[in-house]
Fold these 2 entries.
Entry 1:
Amino acid sequence: MDNYDKAAIPSLADCLKAADETREMLVDRGCYAQIPALLTRLYRGTGVYLISDENTREAAGGGLKKILDGAGIPVRGEFCFPANPRLHAEYAHITAIREKLSALSGLDETVPVAIGGGTVNDLVKRAASELGRTYLCVPTAASVDGYTAYGAAILYDGYKQTMSCPAPLALAAEPEVLARAPAYLSSSGFGDLASKIIAGCDWILCDIAGPAGAPAAEPVDTTVWNMTQPGLLDYLERSVNAARGDSDAVAALFEALAITGFSMQAFKGSRPVSGSEHLFSHVWEMDDLSLDGVPVTHGHKVSIGTLAAAAYYEIFFADPAGPPSPPSGDRPSPSQRMLAVSSAFEGSRGRDLVVKTALEKYVDDAAVKRIREAVTDNYKELRDRVLARLMPYEKLKEMLGRALCPLQPESIGLSRSQAIATARRAQMMRNKYCILDLSWDLGLMETILSRMEDSEQYLR
Ligand SMILES: [Zn+2]
């Protein structure tokens, strides 16, 4: 138990009741049959526009269309992305969906329906928001936490960012469709769920020793915290067999991901569910990471990011007496920093935005002094609480292995050294304080990375 943990963990129903954007969520067997009534009850529109990809249309779209036709709900059109190459959350797709919806002249209230995984949902979520409409989400795999979340993770100008947009007004998830999803999607969802371990550690760290100095630089919102953290290990254990086709495990995984999504909806940001481990995956998303020509899923990148971040934490807190000592020498100046970031993202379309972000979060010497004091003064509490939240690396690896997640960087198309070196670029990416920022501000990043490289244990 952490200081923030409360005895009562909110259920999915509690989270739904507290949600300010999502009004209804159907997760029962045969629930598609209730969609026509749901549309009539909640939405202003009289017709729908279905957005899917070839796989998800086959898995759910066809059956749903029959139900809509049978109920007399007009299907005004369909937008189906090809199954291959695998769909990316590129902003250009949002423009395309928006244009299709706008072209339904005189039918402004047509309801967009996202039938698919995280990418289809994120694209429709943002497109609907840009048109000022609400949409219906029909998830087809327990693969991400974004279905119930506020915001969409979109690649814009080559830079992966969370774009603001409300969560769906309603969701309808058929457990049988989720259970039939390919194993790699369920293991991806498991990786995305396991990442919340690191997100929790980063929030504790930030609360105690964030850039404004102690105390409470970015205080933990305990209501939101309790949606994600206290029940996490139990959910991970219950959902570990999801990728093996165990339908109870898939249902538990979907429920856990939906709850963590609701925590983002409540917080209006990704802090409760995404930390340094997601920054690794954001870099690999910018790099279009693929294995044998197939893009690596979000959750599989996050699995390796979670292992890398766990290793990073263990090295940072290895010594009960204090963090590693910083090497002597001056910190890079802002202009040196700008050059370093610019060169690290040479050739990347998102380079200018990363440079801007890295400079925005560059803290002055006085702030570094405050951060150092906060870490030194609170080291024992910080270490105890982070290590209590962090699953030991070997146990984490064993659990991810049982869930069929990738365990070595090579499984996602990276060498071990490339994966470790990613920490440098990951730290440059987002202005959301985490262990990578803290260690960089204290001049410890290179020491930690060289210890990780030399280790016989981490990322092997
Ligand atoms: Zn994620």
Entry 2:
Amino acid sequence: MKKVKCLLLISGGLDSMLSLKVLQNNGVSVQPICFNSYFFNCKAAQKACDNLNVPLRVVEIGDIHLEMTKSPKFGYGSAHNPCIDCHLMMLREAKKIMEAEGYDFLATGEVLGQRPMSQNANSLMLIEKELDLVDKIVRPLSLKLLPETEAEKKGLINRDGFYSISGRGRKDQIKLAEELGVKDYPTPAGGCILTEKDYGNNLAELFEFKPEADGSDCVLMRFGRVQLSDDCLMVIGRNQLESEWLENSKKEGDMILIPEDFSGPTVIMRPFRDVEEDVLIDRGIGLILQYSKKVPEEFTVEIR
Ligand code: SF4
């Protein structure tokens, strides 16, 4: 008999780990899939899959995720997180793989009502309609609370083997983890830098000043103290580690300023309009002085 196989979008959190186990316990062959972007990575998913002894498939979506983040059709969450569009994008990519490679259905670890913006019943339905995936996504943890899926109608799975978990609490999932022997799961944490307010504010400003901002700009802003003007992105290291990281992040056209004979931060300047070199140097030195505790009367700054 042909084995039922599905593609499961996995983040590495407890919900996706449980979903994987539940599907396996229902006789489904599960291929977990994770998306890698400038704003999040697959480290947690990799760890979860190692833990569950299932190979993970990683798909790069950095550039399409970045372009979507600049003007999402369904707007942003509480920070600069375009969660509905992001879910749509990931499911769209997964759908392409499902259709091309003959998987029977898609599955996610989503729990009804867990996230107010992207996981209420309306959002889940909206996402399915947008992608022409109505009834085609299996959500093992909330399946019994949702309309019958195509996989059930075709007899590929039976809803008796699934769950009716909903809401933001974690009690049901922790209990289920004990029952299923799922251990070493991460405590709930963002994982996506777009949900961080400061980063989100900086990103919004960057997109305003530099609509053509690329992945390396988004990555550069992940560490250090960020300042933006309408012609330049500036990042100031807050400690030795960040200063070293900034030095290694330099790309063509960037200017790096490093205090030579006193203790102060490294500054990287990335102009995105024509800015005179002297003006950049003055600004960079100004930032070093602003964030240095003790500056001798005479000092040297290395400029690269
Ligand atoms: S938190 Fe980040 S990765 Fe998750 S759906 Fe929202 S934008 Fe996408």
